[in-house]
Amino acid sequence: MIKYSPVQIFSALSSPIRLTIIERLAKEGTLTLGELAHPLHISLPAVLKHAIILENCGLVIRSKYGRVHYCTINKKALEEVQTWIVEILDEWSQTLKKLQSTN
After folding, report:
1. Distance between CA 18 and CA 50 in Å, rounded?
2. 3: Cα separation from own chain's centroid
3. What is the pLDDT of residues 4-57, one digit of tens each?
4. pLDDT-derived band of residue 1, with 50, 70 and 90 as boundaries?
5. What's the CA gap between 27 and 24, in Å, rounded?
6. What is the full DSSP assignment across 62-83?
7. Which residues pair with 64 in a beta bridge?
8. Is-contact 58 3, C-beta < 8 A?
9. Which of 28, 46, 50, 71 is the most interior residue, by most CB within 10 Å?
10. Which residue, among 50, 12, 15, 14, has the nearest Cα to 31 in the 3D structure?
11. CATH of 6-102, one of 3.40.980.20, 1.10.10.10, 3.30.413.10, 3.10.129.10
12. Hey, is 2 helix, strand or coil?
């Protein structure tokens, strides 16, 4: 059962900035908003808005210690979307086999 909405996740990943954030978190682990913002050349408020969108769709877990916000990738959400994609590919493959067998 999908807990995280693939539609929300794909919508969030349609932004090149948010996609870059996810890629960095996947490679580098937990990062602060400042660490995420620096190479993107965007302000902290802007990166916070992107982080909130990623958090709302389940891709990022955000925590705050004092004034510092930390972001971590939510592996479970990515795994659920991967499972969903595999299911869609299996259904598509079965449909293609049925079509080929009718010819």
Report:
1. 6
2. 14
3. 788 899 999 999 999 999 999 999 999 999 999 999 999 999 999 999 999 999
4. very low
5. 5
6. EEEETTEEEEEE-HHHHHHHHH
7. 69
8. yes
9. 71
10. 50
11. 1.10.10.10
12. coil
21: its two tokens: 């954030």
Q: What is the model's pTM?
A: 0.83
Structure tokens belonging to residue 19: 């996609």
Extended strands (E) in the chain:
31-32, 60-65, 68-73
57-103, pLDDT tens digit by residue? Answer: 999 999 999 999 999 999 999 898 899 899 999 999 888 888 888 86
